[in-house]
Design a protein that fits this description.
mainly alpha; 291 residues
């Protein structure tokens, strides 16, 4: 009976692991297949897409002009430049200001500190639709409508609550002895933060940066409401460029160019994620071990 009991107990984890692996494989296929379909459909003509949507394009008939048409005729080059500039500056400001605020809230004890921390967290609960009207009038008063500076300020303010929430928890988990050792070695407050504590928070910083990069890069609502339709001198970003593909095609079906535009929007996100995936895993694991 003991051997039978052992066989049952060892088979249950094996069965559970097999079920988990099957679910994860199914989820991966569900996520990856649509991406592959969009990628190879961007190299097909509209007639080929309508004739057999799921067929692979023949190697001797790859329509790379779909990318040229999306980049030039739909002005994707201008939209891409705006997205790179706005996203890069916004993420740097979010991570930098978020790290400073999170360190101050985690390191110093002040009666107003807890109130300020909860004030930051309250920013996570405000829907974008409720904030857009006061933001619109505020940016118009400041002369920042349809400008990259206006979008950067909005994205930075929108991303700071998440950054402060994540980084403050990480700084609180660091031993106070590290700070005391830095002070004994002659570091001031800022030097201890910059040379000792901030490098230790690198996994959390990268995790915040990648999440904010994805959020700002694909953001549509603020960019649509706070920028004008003219790309000349404007600040419209890549998600709005996808909508512009329909306008340049005079609302006719141009699915090849549309798929090419989707690939152009998605590739930077995939590149950044693949480049920093190890740091993301380290940040999540560190948060799990120290939480």
């Amino acid at each position: 009976m003991s051997s039978a009991f052992q066989n049952r107990s060892t088979s249950r984890p094996t069965l559970g692991r097999g079920l988990l692996v099957s679910v994860l494989i199914g989820y991966a296929i569900w996520v990856v297949l649509p991406m592959l379909w969009v990628a190879y459909s961007s190299l097909k003509a509209d007639t080929a897409i309508f004739r057999n949507a799921f067929a692979l394009p023949p190697l001797d008939d790859l329509h790379t002009e779909n990318y040229v048409r999306a980049w030039r005729e739909a002005r994707f080059g201008d939209y891409f430049f705006n997205s790179v500039l706005v996203t890069t500056i916004s993420v740097v400001l979010i991570v930098g200001l978020g790290a400073l605020a999170a360190y101050a809230l985690a390191r110093f004890y002040h009666p107003a500190g807890r109130f300020i921390f909860w004030l930051f967290l309250a920013g996570l609960t405000i829907p974008a639709q409720l904030a857009i009207i006061p933001l619109f009038f505020e940016l118009r008063t400041m002369g920042l409508l349809n400008s990259r500076t206006g979008l950067i300020l909005v994205y930075t303010a929108n991303g700071l609550p998440f950054a402060v929430f994540v980084l403050a928890g990480f700084f609180r988990s660091l031993p106070r002895s590290l700070y005391e050792a830095a002070v004994i070695d002659g570091c001031g407050e800022f030097a201890a933060f910059w040379r000792v504590l901030l490098p230790l928070a690198r996994p959390a910083l990268v995790t915040v940066a990648i999440f904010q990069f994805i959020g700002v890069w694909k953001e549509y609502f603020f960019a649509f409401m706070l920028t004008s339709g003219d790309i000349e001198g404007g600040a419209r970003t890549l998600p709005l460029g996808l909508a512009n593909l329909s306008i340049t095609a005079q609302y006719r079906s141009d699915y090849g160019s549309l798929f090419a535009g989707i690939v152009l929007v998605t590739l930077p996100i995939l590149f950044v994620y693949l480049l920093l995936q190890r740091q993301i895993v380290k940040g999540i694991a560190a948060g799990a071990l120290k939480g």
